[in-house]
Amino acid sequence: MADSCWPTGRSHSGTQLLLSYLLMTHLLIIAGMFLPGAAVAADEVTQQAEKLQQLRKQISSIKQEIDSIRGQSNDLQKSLEKTEKEIGAISAELHQLQKQAQETTRNIAALNEQRAAERETLARLRATLVKDMQSGYATGRQQRIKLLLNQQDPATVSRMLIYHGYLSQARAGRMHEVRESVAHINELEAALLEQQATIADNRQQQAERSERLSAQQAERKALLASLKGDLQSRSSELTNLQEDEQRVQALLQSLQQALRTVPPEDAGAVSLRKLKGQLQWPVAGRITRRYGASQASGELKSSGIFIASAAGADVHAISSGRVAFADWLRGFGLLLIIDHGEGYMSLYGQNRSLYKQVGAWVNRGEVVAAAGNSGGQLRDGLYLELRKNGKPFNPTSWFKGQPAALQAGKR
Asked: At what angle are helices 75-139 and 154-230 packed, to 10 degrees?
């Protein structure tokens, strides 16, 4: 330890040893001061992780209780849930693979640029070195001896010898640069081969996931045909919608209780209430069902809006908050709920895939899901609700303008 504090080859005096001892003692004191704090920080992180794990278990239990509400036990619905969750998981994997592929493609482009620049540098160095070699050959291989034997002024001879020494050193330096450039190009070539192998592996994984996805989508199609044949009448539609509302109401009440155990990570986030009229729509598309629209032959009113969108379109969080729910729920399909604080929650339903887990903190505009038609729906898009203390309200006036054009959401 002490040796590393001093230059090699220098003996340690008594004073130096004393200074080393004092320095080590001081460092130990400082370490003693900071280690307890580090331990406390580690304990806090562990406690937060445990709380988050407990929250996820609690919400999983809530989900099971919600599922027990009459009507959820239908075998066809259970099969649909299993299939759509599998589709969502595969879609999420494909989404991640696509992101990795994009990053790898950027890496390859950067490496190709570096390689091209390095080759240009190598070409210039080689050209300069060739000129040096030609110049040296033209002046003669025994130029130093000729200078010594020449009857010129010794001072001139000395200057010429120094000049030739500089030329030799410069030539040697350029040769070293050439070797380094060649070595760097070889490293870049190896890195490119590695990135290309990564791309090939990525493509193979995507092909496998796509094959699995096609199989699950075919299974879902068969299930939807069975569900269609299982519908009895308009009265059953009304009953189903009423049960869906009971489920989500019970879910939201339970979530609000469960979330109190885990404090928010970002206390400085802007309140959703203050963003009224400034929010960006979560997905690109066209609103085809508005808040309050009639359902079940006018017996019920819609609690949210439906934005018809491209399958797989990115769904963005409307504001910062914490993911309170990320699972399949009958009537809503793959549902993501974000708690924004002060009793406000946003619900994103019928997704094809969910990218966030319960407890995750998300920022305004962050991609949290992919639009789809889960929950047995036929049209692709996103079902959106805004709620305050569990009660739905019209979200239209909270957003600026209309959703972006449908093409902007395609991937």
From this structure: 170
Q: Tell me the C-alpha distance between 266 and 400, whole Å.
A: 25
Angstrom distance (rounded) from CA 395 to CA 72? 28
The mean pLDDT value for 335-345 works out to: 92
Q: Are 282 and 315 spatial neighbours (Cβ–Cβ below 8 Å)? A: yes
Q: Is the residue at 129 inside a domain?
A: yes
Residue span of the structural domain in which 176 resides: 104-220
3-state secondary structure at position 351: strand
CA distance 38 to 350: 44
Per-residue tokens: 399:
């957003």
Amino acid at 114: Q
What are the φ and ψ backbone dihedral angles of 289, each rounded to 5 degrees?
-140, 125
Instruction: Say how far apart CA 355 and CA 330 lie, in whole Å.
Output: 19
Distance CA 314, CA 351 (A): 10
**Tally of domains in the chain:** 2
Cα separation of the two ends of the chain: 57
Q: 345-377 b/e with 16+ CB inside 10 Å = b?
A: bbbbbbbbbbbbebbbebebebebbbbbbbbbb
The pLDDT tens digits of the residues spanning 113-143 come to: 888 888 888 787 777 777 766 666 555 444 5
Supply 411's token pair.
């991937």
